[in-house]
Amino acid sequence: MEKKKIVSKKEIVTKDVTICDSTAQMLEKAKRDGVETAFDRAANMKACPIGANSACCKHCSMGPCRLNANAPYDKVGVCGATIDTIMARNFARMVAAGGSAHTDHGMSMLDLFREVVNGKILDYEIKDVQKLESVAQEIGIETEGRSVKEIATDLYHELERTYIQVEGEIPFAKRVPAKTLETWRKLGIVPRGAMREIMELMHRTHMGVDQHYENITKQCSRTALADGWGGSMVATEIADILFGTPTPVAVDVDMGVLKEDQVNVIVHGHEPNLFESMLVSVTDPMIVQKAKDAGAKGINLVGMCCSGAEMMVRHGIPHAGNFMSTETVLVTGAVDAMCVDVQCIKQGLVAVADCYKTPLFTTNPRCHIEGAEHIEFHEHTPRDCTDAMVIKAIHRFKNRTCEIEIPKNTHAGVHGFSHEYINYMLGGTFRGSYTPLNDNIINGRIRGVAGVVGCTNPRVKQDWVHVELVKELIKNDVLVLQTGCSQIALAKAGLCTPEAAHLAGSGLKEVCETVGMPPVLGIGSCVDNSRILIAASEMVKTGGLGESIADLPVAGAAPEWMSEKAICIGQYFVASGVYTVFGVTFPIVEETKFHRHLFKGLEEQGLGKWGFTPDPYEMARMMIAHIDAKRKALGIDKARERVLMDMTDRQQLSA
What we know:
This protein has helices at residues 14-17, 21-33, 38-43, 49-52, 83-117, 129-138, 148-164, 178-187, 194-204, 213-243, 272-281, 285-293, 305-315, 349-355, 382-398, 419-427, 435-442, 464-475, 484-492, 506-515, 529-542, 564-576, 593-604, 616-634, 647-653; strands at residues 56-57, 65-66, 249-253, 263-268, 299-304, 335-340, 360-362, 373-374, 411-415, 448-452, 478-482, 520-522, 554-558, 579-582, 610-612. It is an alpha/beta fold. A 6-stranded parallel beta sheet has the order 12-11-10-13-14-15, with helices on both faces. It has a 5-stranded parallel beta sheet with strand order 5-4-6-7-8, sandwiched between helices. It is globular. 56% of the residues are buried.
């Protein structure tokens, strides 16, 4: 009888895989319970070194072709494709997939908006008329003397071009600084419509079509810009119009937001429609009474990942953790239902949920998971779905059988710094302006601005790179804007409170204390990176810091990225003019022509450029060096003393 080979599994050391105390505690419990998580799978899954470098091609059946990354020009694919062509094609397909995710999200939001405007959906309404009017005005729609419905109808038809237009420029190109837009036009990368750009990029990467890395990269930029200035921006703006524009709100973050004596319902995903309806369901008096009849003190609604971040900044809903905590939160045994929609949903959730008899519900027709119960969400009748899931959660609470262990960690922070609020915060109601920000960059109190965004990844210690990078940046007077999972990492570390200003350099600390803001501004989910683009455009428009986004003393980073969306986000920041540094790994072979093009050549064309390092301290050094170089080019590298006015001073000026 043949003996089976026993494969021993590598056991993780919790202190080596996360700095999140709650996640670490639950990983220890998972070990005791015999439950596997993504941390375990990562430890026992050796990453393919050829694939990590994008030195392989499987786009046709003549392959797959594997090239030697150490001697990249010694070998080509069966069709003759060089490593530069292969890497560019692989990179392009990541941009296309990532862009399609955000674009599809944005189009779903626009579909909802249309049905609300036409009176066919009654469970949602336009909550921010001022935002509706301001967005309409920015893209040339007349608002004076017109009804909300007339303005909204025109806005829908105009924004629809973002997706379906085959020629021309997308509507939000009107927001792009003139010199930046001039560069895009010169290079031929102004997006037409997202569907056309994604389709063309996928066509170009087919076997035997585009075989020049520079030309492929050009379409990568055009497609990525259709996401950043198109699909994502539409998603953010429509969500604000329908559900309200965020303003700062104090929110608790971490697994301690779960309550043992309440029905805990987690919503995890990316589209706010489901979460908004769930908020209504969990506060319905009849459903709350059902929970109390089952022995609960109430219903506790909690967010995770990006839809959680949106609800956190918009409604102050507590947040349990980021992407790498979505399995471990189930290990608490306290989650009575996890409801998911799209993007960043691990299939491994099914097995973990089953171990603790936690119902896992999929709700979106785009995302079914084998083993999960599907209750489809329809915007025309949203409560049919959300009520049903809450009722099932109440049933699970009543019949809990597993051990409950909830980490006691919570961290309060202030989140919700939309572009509109930053404008108000800096200048007041009647003098709203980015002028104080620009002035304090010019006088040197603020060295520059950094956008630190993106995922968490089990290939590195969860949250650690995010936290250490941001500590270095604020210590060196760099104001940080945060979105997505990165924002939650910083919130857990206590960096999203005004009190965190004591960790900042003297200049940034002075500004934070004067305005009353944290040195780290949380602004929402990953689609809300578009808010950073708007902020950058406003800095250019305000004056004193150059004529294009590429002139600004700013930089971006995704320290623990893992998804194709992140690559697309990175490319639209680079194409917008921002130096963007990624951590963990980068899908490219160094010192190839394609590598030089992304890391140097794009900047020579008047755009931004890529950077890479897994080390947070080196990442901070690279970003600060870039910011300093931009300050020098602007002639503001030597600080000029100015008086920092507080809100009272500014109000007296306007009297």
